[in-house]
Amino acid sequence: MSLLKLKAVPDPDSNPNDNAKKTQTIDLGNGSEVVYVPRFVAYDDGWEFFNYLDKHIPWTRPTLRVFGRSCLQPRDTCYVATAGLPDLIYSGYQPHAYSWDDFPPLKDILDAVHKMLPGTRFNSLLLNRYKGSNDYAGWHADDEKLYGSTPEIASVSFGCEREFFLKKKSRKSSQERSDEGPPSKRLKKSNNVDQHCFRLKHGSLLVMRGYTQRDWLHSVPKRAKAETTRINLTFRHVL
After folding, report:
1. How far is CA 193 from CA 16, 21, 53, 129, in A?
2. Where is the Fe2OG dioxygenase domain (predicted)?
């Protein structure tokens, strides 16, 4: 198979103001921020990456320990990281860390993310595959200590569009982690300042910055109409 090359990132030399118009920046307050780029990867290139990832990534669906009981994670996953980093462990599960060299197209996407986000130095990647309407991510924050107090997390999506929710932590939720607790079917509309929803399009990029992991929870809930597969890449920097 020929090596995929990412020629899909917005080109700063053409249409210099185009990217700024499409990029949405949401100030969540208290040093938290979300940036959303709907067209980070071009449509056709995105499907090339989707097909590569779907077929070549060694996906697994691990068993987690949540609130003292075992449960199957409701999505497939894989972990890639630079050699020598501390191990990632979440909900009692320690994934095997594959090398970037094992999947060269991932390095192309990583390079594109770095160009889009100057100053970032991502060195690990958690991949997730949602195979249909019953696959989801419960309310949680990516607040593991190995990411530091203000982690920047860049999320690239391919395939089926899914809703991505953010809600402000309550005092109780700030003290606990609920990785695979079932997300609520719909967020209440009583206070839209404390909750946000993004429809993550094929080829989009969403970035969480600052104290977002400290002060906010996020989820990808079940959706009956989400009948096809979504693949999501979350780039992180391990200290």
Report:
1. 31, 23, 36, 30
2. 121-239
Determine the Cα–Cα distance for residues 226 and 231; give it in Å rounded to an integer: 13
- Walk along the chain (239 residues) in steps of 10 and give the mean pLDDT of each run: 50 46 90 97 98 98 92 97 96 96 98 98 98 95 95 98 96 52 48 85 98 98 94 98
- The domains of the chain are located at 24-169+194-217
Query: Which of these, 181, 163, 155, lies nearest to 223 by C-alpha position?
Result: 163
The CB density around residue 193, as the number of other CB atoms within 10 Å, is: 8
What is the 3-state secondary structure of 64-90? EEECCEEEECCCEEEEEECCCCCCCCE
CA distance 151 to 174: 16
Q: What H or E segment, with its residue span, contains residue 48?
A: helix 43-56
Residue 218 labelled as part of a binding site: yes
The answer to the question of whether 140 is labelled as a binding residue is: yes
130 annotated binding-site participant: yes
pTM over 0.70: yes
Which helix (H) or strand (E) covers residue 179, if one does?
Answer: none
Q: Classify domain 24-169+194-217 at the CATH class level.
A: mainly beta
> Is 65 annotated as a binding-site member?
no
Q: Is 103 annotated to bind ligand?
A: no
164 is in an annotated binding site: no
Query: Exposed/middle/buried for 192, CB within 10 Å: 0-12, 13-18, 19+?
Result: exposed
| Residue 68 labelled as part of a binding site | yes
CA 74 to chain centre: 15
Residue 237 CA, chain-centre distance (Å), reads 13
Classify the phi-psi angles of 171: left when phi > 0, otherwise alpha if psi is within -120 to 50, otherwise beta. Answer: alpha
